[in-house]
Amino acid sequence: MYRFLKVGLKTKVIDFAGDVGGTWYWNHYPGAMSDSESYVYRFFWDKEDLQTYPWSHRYVKQPEILAYLKHVVKRHNLRKHMQFNTELVSASWDEQRAVWRVEVKALHERQSFDARYLVTALGLLTSQKYPDIPGISDFKGIKVHTGAWSDDIDLRDKQVGIIGNGSSGVQVITEIAGKVKSLTSFQRRPQYTVPSGDGPVTEEYRKQINARYDEVERTLKDSIFAFGYKESTQLYDSVSEREREQIFENLWQQGNGFRFLTAGFCDLLTNRAANQGAVNFMRKKIRQIVKDPEKARKLTSYDLYANRPLCDGGYYEQFNRDNVDIVDLKDTPITGFTERGILTSDGKEYEFDVVIFATGFDAVDGSYNRIDIRGVGGRTLKEHWKDGPSSYLGLAVPGFPNLFMITGPLAPFANLPPIIELTVDFIILLVEHAEKNRQAGRRATIEATTEAEIGWKRRCEQLVENNLMKEAESWIFGANIEGKPLGVRFYFGGFKGFEEVLDEVKRTRFGGFKAIDVERAIHSRI
Ligand code: NA7
Question: Following CA atoms 19, 22, 23, 27 in sequence, which dihedral angle do they give, to the nearest 10 degrees?
Answer without folding.
Answer: 0
